[in-house]
Amino acid sequence: MWVSYNEWRGLHLTEFDSVDGILRPNLFEPELQIDWDNCVNEDYMINFITNLEYAKVF
After folding, report:
1. Is 6 a member of any domain?
2. CA distances from residue 9 to 4, 6, 18, 36 in whole angstroms, order as listed
3. Spans of the chain, pLDDT less than 50
4. Which end of the chain is more exposed for a tag (fewer CB within 10 A), N or C?
5. Does residue 39 lie within any of the structural domains?
6. Which residues, 6 or more positions from 51, have their beta carbon under 8 angstroms from its beta carbon?
7. Range of the domain at 27
């Protein structure tokens, strides 16, 4: 079913990544001011990036 869905949507996924911290380690830890400016700085969600352009560079 997943394969047919991907074909129907025209997706060509090469990997899957989860935002669930239990399933994988956090890859982003804000250190610099630019990091803090582009992350969710509340409710213990500092590992979530809020700016797509910044995420592409990261």
Report:
1. no
2. 9, 5, 20, 35
3. none
4. N
5. yes
6. 38
7. 18-58
